[in-house]
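From the shared-data thread, chain only:
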Amino acid sequence: MADVQDFAIPFLIFLASISLVQTISAKIGGKAGLPPSPRALPIIGRMHLLAPIPHQAFHKLSTRYGPLVYLFIGSKPCLLIASTPEVAKGILKISEANFLNRPKVANLDYLTYGSADFATMY
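Structure, as tokens:
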């Protein structure tokens, strides 16, 4: 029992120092220049914000956070929501080369009603 107590205090100090370093590094320059984003849960990220009807969830997020919203799904940056035509035009104008020659994806075709709407996947 004494062996466990001998390692418990250094282990707790180690965990506290790791969390302190992560907090400081995130504040200094972790996400500089990114659009606003809602707070995330530890493992699932912001998946809880995606309702059964995604376009309504995206509208609710855009009314709260503005016309440009950045989302992580899990720990990966996955989604950038541009809710106004001006913002979408600016994104497409700046990063036009990233959107050229994308392969046709079956699930994207389904989600956009036979490509009648605009969406892109990386």
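The chain has five helices and two strands.
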